[in-house]
Amino acid sequence: MRQSTSTEGSVRAMDGALGPIPAVCLHDHLDGALRPATIVELAREINHELPETDPVALGRWFEDSANSGSLERYLTTFEHTTAVMQTAEALARVAEEYVLDCAADGLIHTEVRWAPEQHLVGGLTLDQAVDAVQDGLARGVAEVKASGGHISAVQILCAMRHLDKSGEIAQLVVDRVRAAAGTTSPGDVPGEPAPGSVVAFDLAGPEKGFPASDHRQALHLLTENLVPVTLHAGEADGAESIRDALVSGRALRIGHGVRLLEDDPEATGPLSRWVRDRHIALEVCPCSNLQTGAISHWGESIKDHPITQLHRSGFTVTLSPDNRLMSATSVSHEMSLLLSEAGWSNQDLADIQLNAARAAFVPRAYQDWLAERIEEASA
User: Fold this and answer.
1) Per-residue pLDDT tens for 317-336?
2) Cα–Cα distance between 79 and 169 in angstroms, integer?
3) 314 compared with 20, residue with greater pLDDT
4) Where, by residue number, does the polypeptide cross the bilayer (predicted)?
5) Among this protein's residues, is 117 annotated catalytic?
6) Nearest to residue 331, comparing CAs of 17, 11, 94?
7) In whole angstroms, what is the distance from residue 113 CA to residue 323 CA?
8) Whole domain around residue 336: which residue ranges?
9) Of 207, 235, 283, 334, which residue is the catalytic one?
10) CATH assignment at residue 322
11) Angle made by CA atoms 39, 45, 46, in degrees to the nearest 5
């Protein structure tokens, strides 16, 4: 069994059924992945009042609070995590611990997203905040490699779709991607990205009522500069939000996308065909989707989740935890649930890990390397 940390630390571990198949994570929020014990320590340093001061009880509070069936209520839990992530030291620590937890969960590549604009209360600039997370991710990667393991970790920067900083964040992403162009991690792995580098842009936050089209100028800037975009869509809003993400945002991946087939159950409509035939990756997060009510059209269990239909229908499905803390989950835990509750096979899981490797925002040579590791382990 892969050893991960418990609720007292950060995430759940799987039951060992998958074996040693490595994993790739494409949709993970940094401010949703803190260890409860770290939150307690950081909150004490800044006199931030928490609903619980015992790490185990705090972990349960986050999970219980997130089990509301509403994305809006789910998002309120982040008030406590962002509150303790307002200094360079705190951001770096959280980022470093995140990488260590991912490695313990069996990941070999992770793309962690977060919104720098939410971490300026302590006086940091956007650049200083991004530098701090980059430093923490790099430290975590170095620690994993020093112990004989392998992981790569990069950043996706989010703008909040209900606020007005998308242009500024888009320019920050463009500048960072340009600066990192051609820069790879030292070592023998071809195309491996520099640890902590910025690779893409996202829009996060309340989805319904705040379409991607409201941010056309920022999204056009990214397209002009050939910077990858992945947008939250089809989670708190219907299939039309996915269309908007593709048309207005030129999104190469869709965050969640689980409501794609809500009004097109046979996947025969033009939007479904476009997403499937163009191999646009869907970053699906089953446990989170249950908590936010994103799959209420289908049911209230992992067995009911449309990820199985999407996978069987040939869509490029990937699997991620979304927010490890709030959902008390991990990539391996999500995979274990699909095995035990939705009738998936180990080959199904290997297939979606290959999807994730091919959809990662990294050079093709590194995509190939990741895919080879998955294929070797699942042979």
Assistant:
1) 999 999 999 999 999 999 99
2) 21
3) 314
4) none
5) no
6) 11
7) 10
8) 23-371
9) 235
10) 3.20.20.140
11) 90
